[in-house]
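Translate structure to sequence.
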């Protein structure tokens, strides 16, 4: 690694890879990350990640927020900065989790587009969404075009990737669309939004590094046909069959087979010592399918396999290979 200016874009050279190179040299300094209008700082001491801050977050969650800035740019400024260490997790675990969230967001962003867009419901007044899970159905009532994806996550107190995953399902089902401008009214059920979460104030050494003020699923497996979009009249589509095995054994068999393919694909990548973990995840997914969770259970299985590999301590290259194999399986 050159001693000159280290800079690049997340599209050309992912930030986790550059942090790994810098950390291997045992360097001390700060990564400045920008995805307008958002900014972040990630501090290294002796090559170890010790602190991070964005406009809304600090510590580990700030780093994971930066992982979703796929169009961001960064540069590394070397030098010792007085910061309070808020991160004790080892670099390999942090960087693998960043890669996992980046991979998940790349898929979700194909339909959600950006965390700064405004989702709105496409349902007619009084129309009940079909083909969605209960969590997605509850979210529909919040989709008035008033909140961005990121603001919805704050209001609901949920991880932004979780909200984006639910929106992905709603957009795929034709129940939601994304806008570039705010419109509509604030959802009454949301109450007063907490759009500026309180971050505990750190000592003066931390405040000296404050930012300048400013204004992490999978595609639906192709195992079922989507119903045609309803005409602008009262909906005539039947409610979602519950439970799946009693009403649609063919669909259940296809989903079960797809879950088995996910597990077999993962076993072809991960060492044998992790196969028991994969079997447990498959058993849980099969139980969810029997309970009627449908494609959601299959999608969650793929995500659980990826997270399980990270939690089991698999190295970054192996996890990236696993994620690529799983994504190729969904793309078929």
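Result:
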């Amino acid at each position: 690694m050159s001693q000159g200016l280290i800079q690049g874009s997340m599209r050309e050279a992912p930030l986790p890879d550059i942090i790994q190179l810098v950390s291997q040299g045992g360097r001390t300094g700060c990564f400045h990350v920008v995805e307008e209008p958002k900014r972040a700082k990630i501090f290294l001491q002796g090559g170890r990640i010790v602190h991070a801050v964005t406009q809304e977050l600090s510590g580990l969650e700030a780093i994971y927020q930066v992982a979703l800035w796929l169009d961001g740019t960064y540069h590394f400024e070397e030098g010792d900065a007085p910061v309070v260490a808020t991160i004790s997790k080892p670099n390999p675990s942090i960087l693998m989790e960043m890669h996992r969230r980046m991979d998940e967001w790349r898929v979700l962003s194909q339909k959600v587009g950006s965390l700064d867009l405004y989702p709105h419901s496409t349902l007619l007044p009084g129309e009940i969404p079909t083909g969605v899970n209960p969590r997605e159905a509850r979210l529909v009532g919040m989709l008035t075009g008033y909140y961005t994806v990121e603001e919805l996550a704050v209001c609901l107190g949920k991880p932004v990737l979780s909200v984006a995953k639910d929106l992905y399902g709603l957009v795929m089902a034709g129940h939601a669309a994304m806008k570039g401008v705010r419109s509509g009214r604030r959802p009454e059920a949301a109450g007063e939004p907490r759009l500026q979460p309180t971050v505990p104030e750190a000592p003066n050494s931390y405040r000296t590094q404050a930012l300048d003020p400013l204004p992490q699923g999978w595609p639906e497996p192709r195992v079922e046909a989507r119903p045609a979009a309803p005409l602008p009249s009262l909906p005539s589509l039947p409610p979602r069959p519950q439970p799946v095995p009693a009403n649609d054994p063919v669909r259940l068999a296809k989903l079960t087979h797809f879950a088995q393919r996910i597990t077999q694909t993962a076993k072809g990548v991960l060492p044998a010592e992790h196969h028991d973990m994969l079997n447990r995840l498959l058993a849980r997914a099969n139980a969810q399918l029997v309970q009627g969770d449908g494609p959601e259970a299959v999608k969650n299985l793929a995500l659980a396999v990826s997270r399980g590999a990270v939690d089991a301590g698999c190295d970054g290259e192996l996890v990236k290979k696993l994620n690529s194999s799983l994504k190729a399986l969904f793309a078929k």
